[in-house]
Amino acid sequence: MLRRRGRGSDDPSVKAPAPHAEGATPPDLPAELVPKHVAIVMDGNGRWANERGLPRVEGHKRGEQVVLELARGAIEIGVKWLSLYAFSTENWKRSPDEVKFLMGFNRDVIARRVDELDELGVRVRWAGRKPRLWRSVVNTLQAAEERTSRNEVMNLTMCVNYGGRAEVGDAAREIARLAAAGKINPEKVDERTVARHLYQSEMPDVDLFIRPSGEQRTSNFLLWQSAYAELVFQDTLFPDVDRRHLWRACEQYARRDRRFGGAVDRAAQDESTTETAQEGIS
């Protein structure tokens, strides 16, 4: 079977993102210093509405524009994977009215915006559990995945009914089932085995994890993938976030020293440099 050609930024049918409303442009960062995968917790919608004497759902509605704004900004600066925490497995504890609104809202946002995302060359993905989700939500997410499956400009993962512990637990359950069926050797199970059974097995590790709203915790979001993520906390509530917040976080990321558990012995390095210099003189 022939694979359909992907739609990258060089495809004439792919549109460039609409410019920032105030003409802001992304910082000029070397490509190797731009995070490949950015994860963002969509936090502060309810507080934003409360501060303005509005129903909490108004904050969520305002957040719809931010999703598109972040997608545009990610494309402009060169981020290839953007993952958004839209509805967690813990959000079922909220009031029935808010849960009902969020179910319909997540469905309708994707349905309303899939055309624009497709035009931008964005591939929509979904990470989360099916149980408890409305069938209409699942159908809309899966339809968006299929509709945009050829796109290669950027991956936008909507994490709906998602929890990091739930994801690892579900992966462990599937691995155990396959081992019991004789399809996996338990002695061969390692980190790569677990990664292959996560919700989105193609998803790379998170490089940059952004939490707006002033909170400083990861809230069970992409725990496995964020093992070595750089964390950036911002005080802005999510409805007031725009692409400049993403760009500023990317600049912070570019200044970080990422060692992944390694270390450099500066004293030994300096001593070696000195000895080499002396040998050159002699």
Give a nutshell description of this structure.
It contains eight helices and six strands.
Please describe what this structure looks like.
The structure is a single chain. The longest helix has 24 residues, at 96-119. The protein is globular. With 282 residues, it is an alpha/beta fold. Strands 3-4-2-1-5-6 form a six-stranded parallel beta sheet, sandwiched between helices. Helix 2 packs parallel to helix 3 and helix 2 (56-77) crosses helix 7 (243-255). The protein is built from eight helices and six strands, in the order E-H-H-E-H-E-H-E-H-H-E-E-H-H.
Summarize the topology.
Blueprint: E1 37-41, H1 45-51, H2 56-77, E2 81-88, H3 96-119, E3 122-127, H4 135-147, E4 154-162, H5 164-180, H6 191-196, E5 208-211, E6 230-233, H7 243-255, H8 266-281
Parallel strand pairs: 1-2, 1-5, 2-4, 3-4, 5-6
Low-confidence runs: none
Q: Biggest sheet: strands side by side, in what order?
A: 3-4-2-1-5-6
Helix-strand topology string: EHHEHEHEHHEEHH
N- and C-termini, Cα separation:
67 Å
**What structural class is derived from the secondary structure elements?**
alpha/beta
Q: Kindly estimate the percentage of residues that lie in beta strands according to DSSP.
A: 5-15%
Gross morphology is: globular
Radius of gyration: 22 Å
Number of alpha- plus pi-helical segments? 8
Largest sheet: 6 strands, parallel
| Overall number of strands | 6
Average pLDDT number: 92
Helicity level: 40-55%
